[in-house]
Design goal:
single chain, mainly alpha
Length: 107
């Protein structure tokens, strides 16, 4: 006994509808997952950037002590003393480079 063509068509249409709805549901779920993944990735990026900015803006105690030592040192006076010492050495070098006059020599 052969099946009626109307029954076969109804089964084919039901199967097609089922496959199409499943495909649409899967695609919708994938889109939702991708959107959620993108949102979570953005949250991680924002949190990571906030942490890096916090590290950059926070002063390490050792670094703070070093900066304080430089600021509190009399750096200008030290540089002035060094400049004076260099100027004195330059004067000595100029004196060493000049040729003595030839006075009192016999020819």
């Amino acid at each position: 006994m052969a099946l009626d063509a109307g029954v076969v068509d109804a089964v084919v249409n039901a199967n097609f509808k089922s496959v199409a709805e499943t495909t649409a549901l899967v695609a919708n779920r994938m889109n939702q997952d991708m959107a959620q993944n993108q949102a979570e990735t953005a949250k991680i990026g924002i949190a990571s950037m906030a942490q890096q900015l916090n590290v950059m803006n926070t002063l390490d105690p050792t670094e703070a002590a070093s900066i304080s030592g430089v600021v509190n040192s009399d750096l200008a006076a030290t540089i002035a003393q060094l400049g004076s010492a260099i100027a004195g050495l330059q004067q000595l070098m100029k004196g060493a480079q000049t040729t003595l006059p030839e006075t009192g020599q016999t020819k």
